[in-house]
Amino acid sequence: MRFTRRLLDRYFFGAGVILAASGAAASCASTDEEVNSGSSDAGPEASVAADGGAPSESGSVDANVRDVTAPPFDGGPLPVVCATDRCATSLVTTLAVSSDDRSEGYCALLHDGTVACWGGNGAGQLGRGDDAGTSDSPTAERVDGLSEVAELSHTCALDKSGSVWCWGTGPYLRNDTGERTTERTPLKLALPPVEHVGMGRDVGCASNGDDLVCWGSNANGQLAPTTTTPAWTFLGPVPVDLPSGAPSREILVGETAFVLREDGQTLSWGAMPSLGRLSSLSPDSYALPMDLVGLSSIDSAGDNACATVGGVGYCWGRLLRDAFLSFWLVVDDWTLPSPVVAPEPLVQIATTRSFVTGGFYDAVVRPQRWCAVGASGSVYCWGFNASGQAGDGTKEHAYQAVKVEGLPTTAAQVKAMPDSTCALLTNGKVYCWGSNYYGQLGNGKLRVPSIVPEEVVLP
């Protein structure tokens, strides 16, 4: 795809500030062999800011974000009711071995308490054992040795006894230093029983009651202030001080760590700009409440985050984009949550990381993209779409939210990666679309992309 006059106009006047990609980005976005276009028509356009709701060029933020009062809408995702034995109840993305590794994959928590994964396997993300090697797989298969799983965080599973099992590459506490290791079968972490776990590429956290411990790399100050503990330090589990409040409901770890509490309060600490609150510290090692209150869901990917509050989606973090006709990259940082105007109330929103491929003179930015589930169970996507990952049957970048076409029923959850998307439907089935270079569509085919949703064959 080359720049068109309309695309350039949108680029320079801000309508597509993070979506305008170079011709190389579009043409090299996928090396999949053929495309399944289905018969889907493009979904209706919706009124959503092209930059995911970023503030104006002046950097100002709507004052209402500072003291958010939840709108009357208080609904949540539609429940999953299993229609068959092959049924998923939760969906997560896998983590690649490094921030510049483009491999993608997904894992699903099945109704029988086991876990199935598919897609990239270079870092052992599929959990199929040493004999399986590092081959990517387009077929969903159960992770070895897991049962009675209650919660997933990327490639870590919390079972009903409170034990945490992890596979792939991460800080899995095989040693006392908190350094990363690669585990091709699930490893039980050396932790006492916990209630929740959050795992990132370099840091893990777990909570039990009011207590929270984190471990791994201190590069983003998530373990201790970098003034006292250098950023290059790796640590085993250390306590993190939390202000008093409601019990924890969910933990997410990217370059910023988040604890979502039962009452909707969210604590954040770590790197800017995904902190989601004002701070004079960078990084900020102190877990403090965000001004955005009443959160019903939150998602984090690298240095980006999104959340829903009372049916409204909010996003914040770092946006990378090409500076047209320049070798330099433009970095837009939005530290405070900015609202996304959607066609209907949102109950869940998913974000992705941006990254740069190539060298200094041929660098190509892969801009972000987002997807969300509406209160009706419809799925909407917007942003980068060179692989058809928006799900509207086209490869045109989505400057406004487009409704995903071709899903057989309503959705309970959506997960997004840079080149693909998967949705968990209310009947327990999983559908995916976009690039399939790593088998991340889970349809039994490798490197055969689809611009319309295709069913994952669950075990």
Textual characterization of the structure:
- It comes from Labilithrix luteola.
- This is BNR repeat domain protein.
- Residues 33-70 are annotated as: Disordered.
- The protein is mainly β.
- The chain has a single domain (5-455), classed as 7 Propeller (Methylamine Dehydrogenase, Chain H), CATH 2.130.10.
- Helix content is 3%, strand content 40%.
- The chain is built from two helices and 30 strands.
- The chain has helices spanning 5-12, 23-27; strands spanning 88-93, 105-110, 115-119, 137-142, 149-153, 156-159, 164-170, 181-188, 196-199, 203-208, 211-217, 234-239, 248-253, 256-261, 266-270, 284-289, 295-301, 304-309, 312-322, 329-340, 346-351, 355-357, 364-366, 369-374, 379-383, 398-403, 411-417, 420-425, 430-434, 450-455.
- The strands form eight sheets. Strands 1-2-3-4 form a four-stranded antiparallel sheet, with no helix packed on it. It has a four-stranded antiparallel sheet with strand order 5-6-7-8, with no helix packed on it. A four-stranded antiparallel sheet has the order 9-10-11-12, with no helix packed on it.
- Strand 2 (105-110) and strand 3 (115-119) form a beta hairpin.
- It is globular and about 55 Å long.
- Residues 1-30, 39-68 and 323-328 have low confidence and may be disordered.
